[in-house]
Fold this protein.
Amino acid sequence: MSAGTFDLTARDETWVKRVLPVLRLVAKKYFRSEVRGMDKVPDGGVLLVSNHSGGLMAFDVPVISVAFADEFGAERPLYTLAHDLIFTGAGKDVFGKFGFLPAHPKNAVAALEAGAATIVFPGGEWEVLRPTSESATIDFHGRTGYIRTALEAGVPIVPIVTIGGQETQLFLNRGDALAKLLKLDKLLRIDSAPFAFGFPFGLTAHFPPNIPLPSKLVTEVLDPIDITAEFGTNPDHDEVDQMIRKRMQHALDGLARERRFPVLG
């Protein structure tokens, strides 16, 4: 099996059911998560497109996963497209059991054509490591491959936005210059290496990792988008991407206006 492709059958429903209570405890008690509109996700294959927040210890993934399982049951598979780094060593077996797939178009299309819900974070490490001052900004870094994936698999897109993740510690800068200096973009496919301030190690470049603050995470699931119905059979991918990000930004702006205090929510 190549590094890019992955076996969908690696997901183990028994393992998922075992870890869900722990994830639910962390999501609902520690992060006081609130997820709205999960019932909007249609049956069958669907591409969930989300913003990404929280640094190297992002918890928007378990928050969404818990809400998805609460709505549809652990029996309905949810696959998560993730950076190759988490599949190094034992990570391949561990994360594979929970439905994580390397973020490769073939994996995404295979999962979607199998009728599974699949979540992608187009902004990836660029967005998840953005400064806290940009916590309410959708930034996919020009990546539009998710549009092609949805069209190839013939599935709708359901946008999802979450606020609060970039308050789990204080991200001070973007760190793209440092990433280039250290050649992380070449070695690890990471475009950002920001400095962050948190507990217990204070100012770090993410190593050693600080413990995320218990910031309240609020998530909103938006209405499904049928690309062909809205844009025709040969849509302009940049136009579709611009529309999706505009809707997501509008929803995220609404969540930001509701937020009265950092971390507390």
The radius of gyration is 18 Å. Residues 47 and 165 are 22 Å apart (CA to CA). The first strand starts at residue 34 and ends at 36.
